[in-house]
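Final report, closing paragraph on structural work. Over the funding period we assembled a curated collection of sequence-structure pairs, and we close with a single example.
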Amino acid sequence: MTSKTLSILALSLTLGAAGLAHAAGTASPAIYPAKGQSAKQQDKDKYQCYAWGRDQTGFDPAQAQAAAAPAAQPPGAMARGAMGGAAIAAIGDRDPAGGAAAGALGAAVRGKMKERQAAQQQQQAQAQQKSAYDRAFKACMEGRGYVLR
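Its predicted structure, as stored:
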């Protein structure tokens, strides 16, 4: 076997028997060979359309992760929050320890909110990229005589 044939075979196994493994757990499209293409030709076309779609959109469903780890809170954010809370409490003749605890808690909550917001933005961007890839893959396969549902 040639290296290109091995590459096609490896990708075909990676993409699965149903066609294309999509990120984020969505179903793969059903691919029907409307012009009687052989199984070997179908695998070749899937690989070429996968590569074309990836190159056109910059999105690789075989490498995509459903959700990346959110960014960690910057070092010292809770300590700065605690110091600020203690200072505010001292100015107002309140318990500095209680102010420090409140400030640290506030910093932690703000950090979690920022992490959640960043994760949502990343998921939205990945969904848009995947949608563009899906359209490119479908257009390529339909251009080669397949029906996708």
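The chain has two domains: 3-66+133-148, 77-121. Residues 3-66+133-148 form one domain. We thank the funder for supporting this effort.
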